[in-house]
């Protein structure tokens, strides 16, 4: 199992990340589609090739082809939206927040999977990308769709753990002696 390969790749000092990675992928109250779509979208948002490869392999075992594509779509659309909306929020001139974005976001309206599942994936990616506006927006939609705070929290924990694994492995690669 690729989660196991990823856990094995983590160094000893990242024991908590290793344990949490196992926990968030094996004891979740989310459906398989919700869980593995969140894992895949977060892996893509982590930008770490090793994390993406390992977690995409497991996600492929649990997701339909449509859900796999939709999770990739969530990572892609939120990469754009998180930069745009975080920027308009952070600018001192509040007028930017009132301007029409003019960016295509059709996948959010028609993700080809359950809309709430897609929103969950968008929320998790927004957590990694640090966009408060998007976090608030997706959390609100999820709560209106009947998601409990605990289920929303699960997606946030997945985002945190996948991100920690990616950063740990990147740090280890940067610290490794160069081979000539």
UniProtKB/TrEMBL annotation:
Protein name, UniProt field: Alkyl hydroperoxide reductase AhpD
Family to which the UniProt record says this protein belongs: Belongs to the AhpD family.
Function: Antioxidant protein with alkyl hydroperoxidase activity. Required for the reduction of the AhpC active site cysteine residues and for the regeneration of the AhpC enzyme activity.
Active-site residues per Swiss-Prot or TrEMBL entry: 131, 134
Domain (Carboxymuconolactone decarboxylase-like) ranges: 99-168
SUPFAM superfamilies in UniProt: AhpD-like
InterPro entries associated with the record: AhpD, AhpD-like, AhpD_core, CMD-like
Subunit and interaction comment: Homotrimer.
Recorded name of the encoding gene: ahpD
Top-level EC class: oxidoreductase
Keywords: Antioxidant, Disulfide bond, Oxidoreductase, Peroxidase, Redox-active center
NCBIfam families assigned to the protein according to its UniProt record, in alphabetical order: ahpD (TIGR00777), ahpD_dom (TIGR00778)
SS bond list: 131-134
Pfam families reported for this sequence: CMD (PF02627)
EC id: 1.11.1.28
Chemical reaction(s) catalysed: N(6)-[(R)-dihydrolipoyl]-L-lysyl-[lipoyl-carrier protein] + a hydroperoxide = N(6)-[(R)-lipoyl]-L-lysyl-[lipoyl-carrier protein] + an alcohol + H2O
């Amino acid at each position: 199992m690729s989660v196991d390969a990823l856990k094995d790749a983590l160094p000893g000092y990242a024991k908590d990340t290793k344990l949490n990675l196992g926990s968030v992928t094996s004891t979740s109250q989310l459906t398989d589609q919700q869980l593995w779509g969140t894992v895949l979208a977060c892996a893509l948002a982590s930008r770490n090739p090793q994390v993406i490869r390992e977690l995409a392999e497991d996600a492929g075992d649990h997701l339909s082809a449509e859900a796999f594509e939709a999770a990739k779509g969530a990572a892609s659309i939120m990469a754009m939206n998180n930069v745009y909306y975080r920027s308009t929020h952070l600018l001192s001139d509040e007028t930017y927040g009132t301007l029409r974005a003019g960016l295509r976001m059709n996948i959010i309206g028609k993700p080809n999977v359950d809309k709430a599942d897609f929103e969950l994936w968008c929320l998790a990616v927004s957590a990694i990308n640090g966009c408060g506006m998007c976090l608030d927006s997706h959390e609100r939609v999820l709560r209106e769709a009947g998601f409990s705070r605990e289920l929303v929290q699960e997606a946030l924990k997945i985002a945190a753990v996948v991100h920690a694994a990616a950063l740990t492995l990147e740090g280890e690669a940067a610290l490794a002696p160069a081979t000539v």
